[in-house]
Amino acid sequence: MKKQLLFKTLLLAIALLFANKAVLSQNYEAGKTLEKSAAVPENVDILISNHSGDIDFSTTNESSVKIHTDIKVTTKTKEEADKLMEAIENFKFNLNGNTLNIDTRFYKSMNTINGRSTITLLNGDKIKIKDFDISHKISIPKSASLNLKNKYSNVSMESLNGSVQLNLYSSKLTARNFASDVSIESKYSKLYVSDFNAITKLDLYDTDIVFKSANDLNIQSKYSKFEGNKAGSLTINSYDDDFKIDVFTDLKMEAKYSGLVSEAVLNMLDLDLYDSDIIIASAKQARFSGKYCELKLGNVKELNIPSSYDNDIYLGKTVRVQIDESKYSLYEMNATSNFSIIGYDDEVKIAKLNSDFESISVDGKYGKLSINPGSAPFKIDAQMKYGKVDFPESLKVSKRIEKNSELEIMAGENGGTVKIRGYDMKVTIK
């Protein structure tokens, strides 16, 4: 009998325990829709700070701004849900002159443990919630200027005619056309934009961006990826980035540990690089200074290199290449009319001399020069120490002096001149 009583008591205790847990685990779900609006000037400046929920922008021909907010919350009690709803309802929406200020943030801080969050509201109240979902839909005049600060949520936009400034953190942006100037500062985000139709400034950190077309782009970035179909002029300051932009007109780039691949035919190319790789189709005017880089530049009409250290540079057909100072670098080109270099332990390979060939000038130590002249006539003017020059036997030699370790050769009667001043170099012209 005592055993039966003990067993019944144990069952009752277990039942009470589960009943208490069931009561404790009960949730209160609530939902609400808010509407706020204001009549505004057509050229209104809209300042928005959004840390609470996804935000969707649409445009209108009306001189008004309307915001539609959907709220869903799950709390322990109705009282907590009511407090949370009231806090959300009171978000800032103020028009002052030509400026509309909207701030959707309704809490100071949020801590989450085991799927449950404690929110400290702006008035200091603390509320325990299991879940909440907030989203905003905003309609603005097409000509409005927009300044948006956004964190931890998605942003979508229709085409905007006014100027736009975006400050994004851990966000996803999906946008159509920006008709006016745009400035975007972004960290840890993903950006998908159809068209930048005016001048655009991008300051990105660990952000991926994909776009269809752009006007001129001014880019400052770290640890980011860029994909685009076409753009105007690019000005880039880059660190450990990856660029794949099919077509653009000009490039001025300062970079470390970055790469750019393009099919672009450029008017102007200006590069200051460190341990970076560049591939383009061609350029009319180009300048490069750098270390530890690989460049594939295609046809370049004129290339100037003030300083080169341990680079590999591949060119198509060129007209003029001037290298002021070089060490440990490789230069390969399909053809040239004018080439000059002052170098140390470099290798130069010229596959062909253009029919209008004028001159090659090499002043170097411990390097190699290989030239296939093709059918272009040429002359040789060489003065070397500890060096060797191989050239066609058919070329008429007017002067040849070999004394001790010094070599002087004058050969050829027509065409441009291959001038060599070298120390321990190997030269082949065949």
TrEMBL record:
Keywords: Signal. Residues 1-25 form the signal peptide. It comes from the Bacteria. This is Adhesin domain-containing protein. It comes from Draconibacterium aestuarii.
